[in-house]
Amino acid sequence: MSNSNHTSTFLFLTGLPGLEAVHIWLSIPLCAMYIASLAGNSLILWVVKSEPSLHQPMYYFLSMLAVTDLGLSASTLPTMFTIYMLGLREVALDMCLLQLFFIHTFSIMESSVLLTMAFDRFVAISSPLRYSTILTNPRIASLGLAIIVRSVGLHIPAPIMLKKLPYCQKRLLSHSYCLHPDVMKLACADTRINSAYGLFIVLSTLGIDSVLIVLSYGLILQTVLSIASKAERLKALNTCVSHICSVLLFYTPMIGLSMIHRFGKLASPCGCVLLSYLHFLTPPVLNPVVYTIKTKQIRLRMLRIFRSGRTRVAGGHS
């Protein structure tokens, strides 16, 4: 297919291989996950905005994570909905490129936010008296802007480069949404430049971020071990538990998926798809749960919301 007919190029998405007959039933838990993600992250944003005591750096970064999770959910939703609810697997190339741009952008954004949260925990534990002077509101806003510029700027060339490639194979993607390596494999032209650029993005973002997060925790551990009191050590480490859970939720499936793509040629296609769902769908659902369970201020505020809601309902019935 020549570049001139790119407007009529369609790609075909894949649901869970071998389970096509029950896709409509699988749509129920998937819809529940999207609703939970929307409700949980929106509630986190509302609680942080409405509670003056939560107007602190840690909760501003948590709000950034919630916005990123909402963006990641919204990026995967359109094609997941059409496959599982409507049984439609066809997607236009332009829509596919737009989707992969947003998925990868929000994915890098999530990684960047997790890195800033690791820095936040390091400053809070190593320099508690200077915490508010180091992480001022203008500095937090600058970090947020830097995250957006970095994530968007790095990914603008990717769909443009893919758009120029001819697609003349069977055009069957391996996932339920468009991803850069997946689309690139369908081109019948030399993709070494695209592949090198994709590798550069991964190493310069996810690679560097993960190394810096590990380094931050090494420094945090060093600081915590220098604290004399055991109770104070546990208290300091306890403030990091939620963030560690979020890091593991995001990076563990991604590393597994990366290993399978490179070395697991005989891996089950269904296993690859499930691991991909774990990477893109579970962090937006579980991050609000983890932070609500582990963060006392957010938990208490949410309990107050639900109690006042119940009181209003009871008052309306009486």
TrEMBL record:
Keywords: Cell membrane, G-protein coupled receptor, Membrane, Olfaction, Receptor, Sensory transduction, Transducer, Transmembrane, Transmembrane helix
Domain called G-protein coupled receptors family 1 profile: residue spans: 40-291
Transmembrane domains' residue ranges: 24-48, 60-86, 98-119, 140-162, 196-220, 240-260, 266-293
Intracellular or extracellular location(s): Cell membrane; Membrane
Stored PROSITE patterns: G_PROTEIN_RECEP_F1_1, G_PROTEIN_RECEP_F1_2
Statement: the UniProt record of this protein carries the keyword Transmembrane: yes
Cellular component terms (Gene Ontology): plasma membrane
Domain of life: Eukaryota
Principal location: membrane
Any Gene Ontology biological process: cellular response to lipid
Family: Belongs to the G-protein coupled receptor 1 family.
Name of the protein this chain belongs to: Olfactory receptor
Species of provenance: Dipodomys ordii
Gene field: LOC105983897
